[in-house]
Amino acid sequence: MADNVVITGLGVVSPIGTGEAAFWDSLRCGRSGAAPVTGLDTTELSRRIACQVCEPVKVGRPMGRAAALAVTAARQAVADAHLDAPGLRAARAAVVVGTTMGETEFIEARLGAAPADWLSEDHLRLILGGRPGTIADHVRRDLALQAPALDLYGACAAGNMALESARRKLLAGECDLVLAGGADGFSQLAFIGFMRLRVMAAEICRPFDRRRDGLLVGEGSAMFVLERESSARARGARVRARVIGAAVACENYHPTRPHPDGDGLSRATQTAMQVAGVGPSDVDYVCAHGTGTPQNDAIEVRVMERCFPAGVSFSSIKALTGHTMGAAAAMEAVCCVLSLERQELIPTWHLDEVLEPCALDALRGEVRAARLGFALNNSAGFGGYNSSVLFAAP
Fold it and tell me: What is the pLDDT confidence band of residue 1, given thresholds at 50, 70 and 90?
């Protein structure tokens, strides 16, 4: 029998709470992370609300915001997996961190600077400190791992893509343990960029609601410890969920708009189920990308109606967390794992009038108890990136 890939540890730093317990409590209670932006003067901007991590993030040495968030989440994941330092150092490991923006401080710190301050010695040091690969490398160094470390740039599908990469590495025998997830710090560039694209909500993110007017920019990180089930069982680890299928599909359609028929997301969804050997009627819940933008939500509903029988349950947690960029799919993966463990479904908060037509079960209003065996996590991003990961109860 083929070995499974399993999750044995998870950690999360989010706008609605740091740590699994705080995160889940906020999801159940509908506690939003939306608040006036800090760190950016919004006086002359048309939007002023974002979802930022409020708690101090202290990692003990200098690093960018995204790396600090990833390191904090990775520490939680390792502790949750009950991996001690000697065991980690001895493991054949890898680190994969999905991100959208990477570290943006080297640009943002100089936006109002004089020309002489650009490419100065200090600025060059800042650029090198935020170059691609540094987020995963900070995680590797913080945990004293002798391991390859990769920042995976996959726009807003990057968190799922990191989990798919980890699954492939483990099944191919390239390593025995992978720390994988997603991370992005609050980015002025992303905030202003989404505002200029006119896809940012004025105050409240309402995914799949008839009155939805856009997303809210967020930040955070979620990280996982993944292993082959045989080795996890051998060391007596708790299996939190199985990662039974995953897929990535790309569209060659538009830099910022999804394909009108949701071609890439449909292919990712269907391929993930095929890889897992699971049929559409077996999937109990879809954790949707659900940004709250008019175009994305309508297309995503069409994709789910094409891929699943009428009545499949779905929701989006971005109503509370905001769109955390490269961390989004990873946070939503945490939601999938916890939903399978607790046998509860989180609704889309702020959803009052479901967009029409919709033949699916749009979760809203309150947490629902359910018998859950399989949960699918879907994500999509600029540039035509789409990724799906299918989780099963242990």
Answer: very low
The range of the structural domain enclosing residue 388 comes to 5-392
CATH at 133: 3.40.47.10
CA distances from 336 to 143, 165, 314, 393 (A): 26, 18, 11, 10
Q: In terms of C-beta density within 10 A (0-12 exposed, 13-18 middle, 19 or more buried), how is residue 231 classed?
A: middle
Q: Which two tokens stand for residue 233?
A: 């069982």
| Residue appearing with tokens 């609300």 | 49
Distance CA 319, CA 197 (A): 19
DSSP bridge pairs for 95: 149, 179
Tokens of 191: 């905030």
Helix 328-342 × helix 20-29 angle, to 10° = 80
Mean pLDDT of the residues in the chain: 94
Give the residue-averaged pLDDT of 137-147: 94
Q: Which residues contact 306 (CB under 8 A, 6 or more apart)?
A: 262, 266
For residues 304 and 314, is the Cβ–Cβ distance under 8 A? yes
Would you say 276 and 244 are in contact if contact means Cβ atoms under 8 Å apart? yes
Q: What is the distance between the alpha carbons of residues 252 and 262, in angstroms, rounded to a whole number?
A: 12
Q: How many C-beta neighbours within 10 Å does residue 309 have?
A: 12
Buried-state track 277-288, b at ≥16 Cβ within 10 A, e below 16: ebeeeebbbbbb
| Inter-residue contact 97 to 67 (CB < 8 Å) | no
Identity (one letter) of the amino acid at 186? F
**Which pLDDT band, with edges at 50, 70 and 90, does 270 fall under?**
very high
Pairing of strands 241-250, 385-392: antiparallel
30 burial level (CB within 10 Å; 0-12, 13-18, 19+):
middle
Amino acid identity at 162: A
Which residue type occupies 204? I
Domain count, the chain: 1
Question: Other CB atoms closer than 10 Å to residue 43's CB: what's the count?
Answer: 6
